[in-house]
Amino acid sequence: MTVVHRKGQREPKGPEPQSREELAAAFTPPANSTDAGELAEPRADVSWNGRNVEIPDHFRSYLGDKLSRLEHFDDSIYRFDVVLFHEPNRRQAKQSQVVEVTGIGRGPIVRAQGSGENFYAATELAFDKLHKRLRRSKRRKQVRKDGQRRATSLAEATADALPPLPEVTSVNGVDPWDDGLDGHQPGQVVRVKDHPAVPMSVDDALYEMELVGHDFFLFHDSETDKASVVYRRHAFDYGLIRLA
Predict the structure, then answer these.
(1) How many domains does the structure of the chain reveal?
(2) Is 140 among the domain residues?
(3) What residues make up the domain containing 222?
């Protein structure tokens, strides 16, 4: 992956370390968690990353038990990346502790992030998202195994859609996109990411977009051999953009 930043731009400063009292409060277990019992450990490797946060052993055990439950949905996951950090913005005090979990396996990557007033609350939100995405992924795999229950692809669903509108180049000899401003410069590109473009179908692109929780996904369409983008619309619908 290649990351390019704009020249002359200062990198944002990292969050300030929390005091011992603040860290202790952030890792205080909720009152209804006294009957934890024996905690399970995940079979997959776990990579812990605390950004200016020292992760205590009791929280590692608590989170490891939750990670082991995710393996019931996808036993191909061989590594979990866990990142904890503190958001220093005082206006977001109730959402200041952040937990991000990434599952890496033989299939697409699954990722979710949660934020709360302490790391336990943030973990519950993150794992609620992971459970929903992995359950949806598991149901999708079951549908694919049964040819008669195959899900309708986006290309089939939009086969009878209206043709695209003609391109408008001018209205009464005037360029409709001309805002009349000279020397106007919008925001510049400050970050560029390169990722491998493995050819896939539209259905597979939607599948990977749902797992990472993004609103769009750029992919190489195996049907048209062109770069395409699927994106999320209102009312749980999807859109597709293809290069002509």
Answers:
(1) 2
(2) no
(3) 152-158+195-244
What is d(CA 99, CA 117) in angstroms, rounded to the nearest whole number? 11
| 195 or 218, which is more confident | 218
Q: Residue 111's closest CA among 83, 72, 85, 76?
A: 83
For residue 209, give the nearest of 182, 240, 243 by alpha carbon. 240
Q: Looking at the predicted structure, is the pLDDT value of residue 148 above 90?
A: no
Q: pLDDT by residue (tens digit) across 107-127? A: 778 889 998 888 998 999 999
* pLDDT tens digits, 92-112: 566 688 999 999 888 778 889
Nearest to 208 by CA among 197, 194, 193: 197
One domain, residues 24 and 101: yes
- Which of 69, 85, 65 has its CA nearest to residue 77? 69
Tokens describing residue 100: 């991000």
Which pTM value belongs to this model? 0.54
Give the list of residues 6+ apart from residue 117 with CB closer than 8 angstroms, or none: 93, 94, 95, 96, 97
Rounded to whole angstroms, how far apart are CA atoms 230 and 33? 41
